[in-house]
Every structure is written in C-alpha cells, then in structure tokens.
Amino acid sequence: MTRVYDSPMSSASFHSESPLRARHDEFASGETARRATAAGDARGSADFPHATHAAQVAWIPWGESAEIVGVFDRVETEYAAIRRGAALCDQPQRGTLEICGRDRVEFLQRMLTQDMKGFSAGQTREAFWLNRKGRIEADLLLCEIGDRILIDCAGAVAANTATTLTNFVFAEDVTIVNVSTRDYRLAVHGPETLHLLELAGVNAQAVETLGSLHTCVATSIGDISCVLARVDTCGVCGIEIFVARTGALELWNSLLSVHDLLQGGQRRGRPCGWHAFNMARIEGGTPLFEVDFGPASLPHETGLIDRRVSFTKGCYLGQEVVARMNSLGKPKQIVRAFRMMSDSLPVESAQIFAVGNEGSIGDEVGVVTSSTMSPMLGAACVGFATVRYAHSSAGTELIIAAEGRPERATVQAELAAVKIPGEIGNSEKQI
User: Fold this and answer.
1) What is the pTM of this model?
2) Domain ranges of the chain
3) CATH code given to domain 332-414
4) Burial class of residue 35 in the structure, from the number of CB atoms within 10 Å of its CB (0-12 exposed, 13-18 middle, 19+ buried)
5) What are the angstrom distances between the C-alpha of 186 and each of 12, 13, 121?
6) How far apart are CA 120 and CA 135, in angstroms?
7) Are strands 86-90 and 269-271 parallel, antiparallel or unpaired?
8) Which residues contact 367 (CB under 8 A, 6 or more apart)?
9) pLDDT tens digit string along 51-80?
10) For a tag on the chain, would you pick the N or C end, based on fewer CB atoms within 10 A?
11) CB 313 within 8 A of CB 109
C-alpha cells in the first residue's frame, strides 16, 4: 500500500511550481557561506577550511501535483523553529477556491458536512465535500472574508471540487472559481508566529483577532495584500497565508528578513520543509488528507468526524451515507494514533497485526499511514494508522512491522500522543 500522496489523485492534472524555488536555493547558499565564515572567524581566518555542514534544499515529489521542500538545511533546526520560534512553510501542493455571491453561505450549507449557519466575516470552518456515495472528495478550510469565501484544499482536487460544486448551482447567486494559479499558499507555525507577523507590519487589530482559533483576517504585510487564517496544525499557533502568486516571493522575503532588535537583531523566522512539519503535525494530532486518508475514505473513518461533520443540520450530498454510518455506531476502520513500545520506527504502509494467542502475530488489522520519532516524547516512535474498528480502542496492543521486525505498539486515546505547551485556548492542548 502506498501513501496517498504517492498515488495519482482523481484530478492529478494540477501541477504547481513554487515561485520561491530560486529563493530557496539562495537561502541555502547563504547559510553555507555564513556557516563557513563563522567557522573561519572562530580560528582567526575566514579562509580556514572547515568541514561544516553545507545547507542544501532537498525537493521531494508530492504525487503528480507538485514538488515540495523536504528540508532546507537541518530537520532538527527546522523542527525547533516550530516548537520554539516561527517556521515558514512553502506550500505549492495546496489549492485555493473562491466563492462569491450573496447566496454563498446558504449554498454551502446544503453542500458540505459542516453546519454553515451563522458563518460570518472573520470566521473559519472545516468541512468535507463528499460524493453521492459519502466518500470524501475534498477536505476544506473555509475562510469568510466578508465579500467572498476563500477555501483551502489539496491542489490535486481543486479543479474537480470547483467543477462539481458548480454543477449544483441552480438559481442561487453563487460563483465558484478555482484560483489556484492566481493565489499561492504559505504558512507560519510556532509560538512566535504572531510576534513575527507583528514585527512584519501586520496591524495590531489583525494580530489580536488571530489570537483566537477559527479566525481569519484580510490584511496586508507591508504593501502586500493577503488573507491570514488561524489553524493550529502542529499544536502551536499556526497561520495559513493566502497571497497572490505574484506577491509570494516578496512576502516570503519580507517574513524571512524580520529581525527583532529587542533580541539582539535575531532573525525571527526560519524556512521549514515537509519533514520537520510532518513531525510536528503528527505530535499535534492532525491527520492529513492525501496522507492519512483520501478520496476512498468515509468521514467516520478519518477520526475527524467531530471537527468536520454536523448531525443537526439538514441534507447535503452524501448525507444519507453519513447518517447511516452514524446510526450503526462504528465504521469498519478508523484513523488512530499509535505509540511504539520499542525504538523501532515503522514506515508508511507498514502492516499492522492483532496480538494473537500467547503474544503471537494475529490477523492483519491495519496499515501505518504516517510516522515519526517524536522529540517531544524523547524520540518515541509515534504515528497514525488506519486500523479495524474492533482494534481501535485506547490501550489496545498491536504488532507493527518495523525495521524488519514485528514490534509492539499501543493505540492512543486521542489523535495524538503528547502535550504541546503553548497558548491554545489559553491552556495546554491534550493531544
């Protein structure tokens, strides 16, 4: 079984080239030169040969839709930026839809799994867009700006989502456009994110608004117009950024160049690739569409039913299947977090087995969808897996193929396994 993002999506014709690619290479060259100079200065000579680590951007494929940065320099440094500072993420794999018209909220109310009543300017909501069989076509983040709604989704499904939603527009005043080639997506994650934005020139009111979850603002950073949305994917403050593709490079440079004079001129933001982000989002308890679940999944199988689905609203596409599954009380399989009992790390697609008689290997009951060695847990191996519902209860022991050996693991109570300190609802978030 391959990871979802390694497999062709239903609309994999989307391909996005990062407008920041050359800038990333410049950053790596600059880091290498800075490091070499510092090493030379330490020995009294800038020409002193030093076997210092050379920074080099590593690009990895994201299915057929994009190439993303795996790592800019050191994974551990980038991870530290997420946990202690502010990490800048380039996201060419993301797509954006724009919905306009006075009936846009009412239209989405009868289309999506989430209750959209009362959805107003400055708010965000998460929802699934389903097909008639109740399978997930897209996982959506909706941002109401006041005159329009911006929707974040996987780039590979953006075109199909816009087309299929448009097919359901009849007499409503609604226009749905895939603007993925016009708009671009960046993100910042870390406890210093809001401070970075403040130093970059975001007005105080916007920063204050983004201090709460499920909020968004249309603002500017310098002379660049953008939309900022609060989404704590990694368990700490996270801001998704919608910006015109033509302004993405300038905005990236602006955020990367922010220095805090009160901290000795220290640079506040650091570029961060997929590998560090993946570690942090697993710790943060966030399964991802295209990674941990995909178009073949039912909402109840994602472990996100409470965050994405309303059972008190009216009908929507696929609602009958969702209601039927809810009445049954359980799906056949579900995404759950796990923690290994050993220091062996299973890879994506690793087989999962039940514990048989006298500790033997029982029936196959699942597959690993993502995994990492968690610094927050002292390098404990944790991850997400799709497992049969009968084996999904907290504390259930499993056997997972890891590094060529069958190793024991336990199902975690929630969708993550650690406590992330920081301001999340003014308290620690149990994950």
Assistant:
1) 0.90
2) 8-329, 332-414
3) 2.40.30.110
4) middle
5) 21, 22, 21
6) 28
7) parallel
8) 1, 349, 350, 351, 352, 385, 386
9) 466 778 999 999 988 999 999 989 999 999
10) N
11) yes
Distance CA 87, CA 71 (A): 12
DSSP 299: G
Number of continuous H segments (helices) and E segments (strands) in the chain: 10, 23
Looking at CATH, the fold of the domain delimited by 8-329 is given as Gyrase A; domain 2 (3.30.1360)
For residues 420 and 284, the answer to whether their CB atoms sit within 8 Å is yes
3-state secondary structure of 119: coil
Could you report the per-residue pLDDT of 236-258, keeping only the tens digit for each?
999 999 999 999 999 999 999 98
Closest CA to 194 of 234, 230, 158: 230
Alpha-carbon dihedral of residues 225, 240, 254, 221, nearest 10 degrees?
Answer: 30
* Distance of alpha carbon 4 from the chain centroid: 14
DSSP annotation of 52 reads: P
